[in-house]
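Late entry, evening session. Most of the bench is empty. Finally got around to the prediction I had been postponing all week. Sequence below, unchanged from the version circulated by S.P.
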Amino acid sequence: MKSDIYKINNTVEKIKSGKNTLFLDGRELKLVTAKLKKQEYNIYYPYKDSEKVMLYTGKVPNIKLFKIYTVEKLRHQDILGSLFALNIDSSCFGDIVLYNENYYVFVTVEMSSYVKDNLKLIGKSKVTLEEVNLDTLDDYERAYEEHEIIISSLRIDNVVSSIINSSRSKAMDKIKNKEVIINYEVINRNSYVLKENDIFSIRKYGKYKFVGIIKSTKKNNYIVKYLKYL
């Protein structure tokens, strides 16, 4: 898409002119760094297991970390949806992290006041945001649920069908309706074959990391492992 090309080229120009980027996901990071020399940039990881990062040349980027307070139990996808409902670009906020039963979100300094003043409702839950020190997540390690399933092939429609416990046709509909994202890109091929460490998400079901094949069965099926993000 032309907008994607413009965004990537604009980000590259920011670095070349000595400015920091906003938050980049894994796909954007790969596209931007492919247009740069290694000595032209540094990568800033807000915490050691960060997926969304920033590129910089001089000072380390200045960002803010908010703790989300609520009496209700929140879900990652609801927080993400509420952030997008504020009409801000995904580059303005970083990872959403669950740590010690509380959710946290990284936000650019420029958008921090707007997010704090306007993010009042997530799903049906009233929330408040409190700025906390970035070192709050120094000891954080990403949590996953480990799952194993038996599948006949590594095609994405087959894997999605098994994970959401539905028919293959329903899984294909989800792909057709752009509800499946692989490595930060909307997938449009049912035949895509998952590879080790692929990250994918299924709308309303969550985000996953494909670990790979554990072993084959006597009936030529595969026992595979995947991780579900918590």
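Two things to note before I forget:
The longest strand covers residues 206-216.
The longest helix spans residues 2-16.
Will write this up properly tomorrow.
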